[in-house]
Design brief:
Layout: H1 2-17, H2 22-25, E1 29-35, E2 45-52, E3 57-63, E4 74-83, E5 93-96, E6 102-108, E7 114-125, E8 128-140, E9 146-152, E10 157-163, E11 170-175, H3 182-187
Antiparallel strand pairs: 1-2, 2-3, 3-4, 5-6, 6-7, 7-8, 8-9, 9-10, 10-11
């Protein structure tokens, strides 16, 4: 949290330009990481995930960092990108993939029968930051049914594996390419594609 606050403080002026002042922004910071995701800017960018309490969602902002002359300016703004709950096990967060891509993680593992974890992987292609990957893992706490779907949006390849303790795993695969920015993904509602939706048989 200390690192997140430090990044948010550096980003304060730019975020204020987006419609909030610093005092209102700091309590909304859920997660923040430095990331080199934009070839158009020098040095590391600052990725910040902010809670939108009115909607139960989280907004992603990526800012140019020092020593770039555009430091503090927004590179990406995606409002309502992922779901954000109020309990432990429901909070979204940011992390870096081994290859340097940015992962936006969301989850609902706190309560209820059906638990899930979701990952959006962001990367730059042809000068544009895109949703490059989507992963959904879900499981049923009563039947022990589970499913995992991985989708590479850039190549279009997807694979879905599901099953339970009393049945053989079912593996499906296909191809459906989609070029979409984080803001466009959010505008689509951020829902799992049809081929990543599991029928637990309950």
């Amino acid at each position: 949290m200390r690192a997140a606050l430090a990044l948010a403080l550096m980003a304060g002026p730019a975020l204020a330009q987006l419609g909030d002042d610093e005092a209102a922004i700091l309590p909304r910071v859920l997660s923040a990481v430095p990331v080199e995701i934009s070839d158009a800017h020098i040095g590391e960018e600052r990725a910040i995930l902010l809670a939108d309490e009115a909607e139960g969602l989280a907004d992603l902002v990526i800012l140019a960092g020092h020593p770039d002359e555009a430091a503090g300016q927004a590179v990406v703004v995606a409002r309502g990108l992922v779901w954000a709950g109020q309990m432990a096990g429901q909070g979204p967060f940011l992390e870096l993939a081994p290859n340097g891509s940015l992962r936006v993680q969301s989850q609902q593992t706190a309560i209820g029968r059906h638990a899930w974890e979701e990952t959006l992987t962001l990367a730059e292609r042809d000068g544009q930051i895109l949703v490059a990957g989507y992963t959904l893992t879900s499981w049923d706490r009563i039947t022990a049914f589970s499913g995992r779907c991985d989708w590479n949006l850039l190549s279009g390849r997807w694979e879905s594996v599901s099953g339970g303790p009393d049945s053989d795993d079912v593996t499906l695969s296909g191809r459906e390419a989609l070029r979409v920015t984080p803001a466009e993904w959010a505008a689509r509602g951020g829902e799992a594609p049809e081929f990543c939706r599991f029928d637990s048989g309950d």
